[in-house]
Design a protein that fits this description.
By secondary structure, this protein is mainly beta. The protein contains one helix and ten strands.
Length: 140
Amino acid sequence: MNEKHSGGCRCGAIRFVADDEPEHVSYCHCADCRKASGAPVSAFVGFATQSVTFSGEKPATFVNFTVTRSFCPVCGSPISYFDRRIPARVYFVLGAMDSPENYRPTLHAYVAEKLPYVHMPDGLPTCEASSVPRPVADKV
C-alpha cells in the first residue's frame, strides 16, 4: 500500500490507508458538514472504497439519511463520510490525513449554503450543491 495516502484519528486508535490515488478533493460549505465538523467549512479527499483498509479501533458512526459519518470512539475525531448512493467512494476529512498538504482541493461544493463571512478567493470552481453526482436527491 502507498503510505502517502494514510491517516487516522487524533489519538491514533484508528488508522487507514488507501492504495489508490484520490478521486476527489474538495471543500464543502453545507450546513450538515458544519455541524459534523464544528468548522465553518470542511475539506474532504475521496478514494475508491475498495482501496481503503482500516486498522485499530472500529470507528463509531452516525447515520443521517443516506450519509454515514465515522469518528473515533476514543478521542471523537471525525474520520470519514460515506454516502450509500455512491458506494464506490469514501471521503476522509482532510485533517485526518497524515499529510493533508498533499491534497489540494479543486473546487467548492454547496456554496449556496456558504456562510456569508467565509471568503476564500482561491479562484476554484464552485458548485451550488453537490460536486459529486448522486442517483437521487443531492441534499443530505
